[in-house]
Design goal:
alpha/beta; 9-stranded parallel β-sheet; 17 helices; about 25% helix; globular; binds alpha-D-galactopyranose
Length: about 750
């Protein structure tokens, strides 16, 4: 089945809030959507008080008319249930359903997300409004997908949450002795003798119990999932052939284990707002897209390689056309013009079934009045809207790539629970962030030009079939089954890189005894006795001119060979990085955070040994290359994140070329042209560029038989590469003779 239902090609559009506008504006909206080639909009996300102004009284005629108008305009709809923002009447009628903070403060209405997902009254009201929408719109021809709620992510500590937590704990542990053991209740006199004594981790005198906090986060993820399932199940009953999704939000505050949720969601949808303004924004984009693609992988493996067909589709559901708020800092930053185009297509390159935005039209008021939109306050006569039109054209031209797979031979481990456990202040360093550890590993592979999947060792049997290389950054919690799978995989030819703080604890966050990293000691051939964390600015010199940060360990490299040593400080002369040959593979241990260049070089060495090749080995710095493959057809996506034109050794037919003019206008053109020396020149020249707005000139050049293409600064190029001869698809990258070049 093609999802979203009834849509061919890639999805393009955003959150659309007709309830904020007079109907005359709707007519203009549809006309502008058509101009921008928008084909999908998310309607009704926060419309509860408009749909149900009084308990049980519905006003839906406006939504009828809005959906009809969109349908007539050829625009399909992701219809949202509005349950992320209950109306004021709901909070006043059910004050017990308002959320309570860890400090015991009951929040009031006046924003959004003012509900407790465990409160029975909230769940009933949410199901009722979802059922009303399902009954009314089940046969509406515009309906392409259901969107439940918005960004599940709020937490509550009220008595309803406490009751539900106790029920969850009873299911998990069966009896209190097991719970007391798992929570190490003997420490600080925390053994419970009745289930009713157990609370969510509320404000308390000093450090909280780490396993209580961890279990509460696991429980709350399950509780939110149950709230999602309530709605999903009833929507499915009404419309079994319409997919149901919810939009994931990123952040270490998010109390949702996205990997665990994945099997319950028809189409994985993510919202992505890079938080960095420099080159890191591109790394964050690639990381988010790789995570989304990996979450869309079936959870239980069937033994087949994780290439074509193993990822279900996913969708970038929200992103910002321009200004992104940083609410915590009370500021916002503007995306450079080219980033809207490059980031959107970068998501598509990594498997997204399109690019969607928050939001279609900038609101006149409300808390996010200045958040960017495809139609800004200035209206359609604006750079942002013209860019939206160009992006719509690019997505149309890319429709042929839609079903192609993104194949990766390298993976990184991802475990939400390990991230939560590492947030506890009782850990030896408050400067370790799981998200940063994962990002550093991903960045290193990204800078190697290697496409990376994520695997989620805690969400079911770990299936590493098809991967040649795996990096486990700070995978703190590990059960024996995962450790055994890793050992078997390495023995049969896998290349494993493990960083500090991996395998240290069991899934109850109880430390494995006998030396760190308990679960992996034998496989890595090391036994670590002491942690010597570094302060936030502390560094340690390593051999080979490299630097370590954040962490150090004193360990014996028994069966492993030292690769890098500590050069200064109390560990001078001791190993810092080791490698152990195991069967047909090898296992590496990193006891400190390598500087970015060192990490990249190390992973390049491991990749070369593992036979994992970069997408484009000779890609110049600043050029990102991603390949999608559909049978024998191969699409090469090239992004130039630099400020200079890039010449890239690649060939094929040009599907789309895009660039940024000095004025900030985005330009997109596409034709099946042979790749040429000068594919695109922007900002001058005599010729009119196809698709360019009046007054903008440029040259779409042609060449003959070239094996080099030029990608404009801040721009992109998508090529259909010549078909690859059969038998040459899994080219093994030769192992360079200096594979252990880090040794000293
Ligand atoms: C989230 C929400 C949107 C909006 C944006 C603003 O992604 O889903 O409703 O608040 O953030 O960045």
């Amino acid at each position: 089945m093609r999802w979203p239902k009834g849509l061919d090609g890639l999805c393009y559009g955003g959150d659309y809030n007709p309830e904020q506008w007079p109907e005359t504006t709707w007519v203009e909206d549809v006309e502008l959507m058509r101009r921008a080639r928008v084909n999908l909009v998310t309607v009704g996300v926060f419309a509860w008080s408009r749909l149900e102004p009084h308990p049980g009284e519905y006003t839906v005629d406006w939504l009828d008319r809005a959906l009809d108008l969109l349908q007539q305009g050829g625009i399909r709809v992701v219809l949202a249930t509005p349950t992320a923002s209950p109306p004021p009447w709901f909070s006043l009628t059910h004050p017990d359903a308002l959320p309570v903070t860890a400090d015991g403060v009951r929040l009031r209405h006046g924003s959004r997300d003012t509900y407790c997902a465990a409160a029975p009254a909230y769940r009933v009201a949410a199901r009722r409004i979802a059922a009303m929408l399902a009954e009314r719109y089940r046969d509406h021809p515009a309906l392409a997908m259901w969107h439940v709620h918005n960004e599940y992510g709020t937490v509550c500590h009220c008595p309803h949450a406490a009751d539900a937590f106790r029920r969850w704990l009873q299911q998990r542990y069966g009896d209190l002795d097991r719970l007391n053991e798992a929570w190490t209740g003997a420490f600080w006199s925390q053994c419970y003798s009745e289930w009713t004594q157990i609370d969510p981790p509320r404000a308390t005198q000093y450090l909280t119990n780490p396993t209580q906090v961890l279990d509460f986060r696991r429980f709350w993820s399950d509780e939110l999932l149950a709230a999602y399932r309530d709605q999903r199940d009833l929507l499915r009953e009404h419309t079994p052939d319409v997919p149901v999704t919810t939009n994931y939000v990123f952040g270490d505050w998010v109390p949702v284990d996205h990997a665990r949720w994945a099997r319950e969601i028809d189409l994985i949808a993510v919202d992505h707002y890079p938080t960095e303004t420099d080159g890191r924004a591109e790394e964050q984009t690639a990381l988010a897209a790789d995570l989304a693609r990996s979450w869309s992988r079936p959870v239980t493996g069937d033994g087949s390689p994780p290439s074509a067909g193993r990822h279900r589709p996913w969708l970038l559901m929200e992103s910002a056309p321009n200004l992104i708020y940083r609410y915590a800092e009370g500021t916002a930053y503007a995306k450079e013009p080219g980033r809207m185009l490059r980031h959107s297509i970068a998501h598509v390159a990594r498997g997204s079934r399109g690019a969607m935005f928050f939001q279609w039209r900038a609101p006149r008021g409300g808390a996010e009045a200045f958040h960017s939109a495809m139609v800004p306050h200035a209206g359609a006569d604006s750079r942002t809207f013209r860019s939206a039109v160009q992006l719509g054209e690019a997505l149309r031209l890319l429709a042929a790539t839609d079903t192609a797979a993104v194949a990766a031979r390298a993976a990184i481990g991802w475990d939400a629970a390990s991230g939560w456990a590492l947030q506890h202040p009782g850990l030896p360093s408050g400067h370790i962030s799981y998200a940063d550890e994962v990002a550093a590993a991903h960045r290193a592979l990204w800078r190697c030009g290697i496409t990376t999947d994520f695997v989620c060792p805690a969400t079911g049997p770990l299936d590493l079939t098809g991967y040649r290389m795996l990096v486990l950054p700070a995978l703190y919690l590990m059960d024996d089954a995962v450790a055994d799978t890793l050992a078997d995989w390495v023995r049969t030819g896998g290349y494993l890189v493990v960083s500090y703080l991996s395998g240290v604890a069991d899934p109850d966050a109880r430390v494995r005894l006998g030396g760190y990293p308990g679960a992996l000691r034998e496989l890595l051939g090391v036994r670590s006795e002491e942690f010597l964390p570094l302060g936030p600015d502390g560094t340690v010199r390593l051999s080979g001119g490299r630097t370590g940060r954040l962490w150090r360990e004193r360990f014996e490299a028994g069966a492993a060979e030292p690769v890098l040593d500590y050069v200064d400080g109390v560990l001078a002369g001791q190993p810092a990085v080791t490698r152990r040959s195991v069967g047909a593979g090898a296992a590496w241990y990193l006891s400190t955070r390598l500087d970015d260049d060192g990490y990249r070089e190390l992973l390049a060495v491991v990749a070369a040994e593992a036979g994992v090749a970069p997408v484009l080995p000779a890609a110049p710095a600043g050029v990102e290359a991603v390949r999608r493959v559909d049978g024998t057809t191969r699409w090469l996506f090239l992004f130039n994140h630099g400020r200079e034109e890039a010449v890239v050794a690649a060939t094929g037919d040009v599907l789309v070329s895009g660039g940024v003019l000095p004025s900030g206008e985005i330009m997109v053109a596409g034709e099946f042209l042979p790749a040429s020396d000068v594919l695109l020149t922007v900002g001058g020249g005599p010729g009119r560029w196809p698709g360019a707005p009046a007054g903008v000139t440029g040259i779409l050049g042609r060449g003959r038989g070239s094996r080099r293409v030029r990608v404009p600064p801040g721009g992109l190029l998508v090529l259909r590469e010549p078909d690859q001869p059969v038998g040459n698809r899994n080219h093994r990258h030769p192992t360079p003779s200096g594979a252990d070049g880090h040794r000293h």
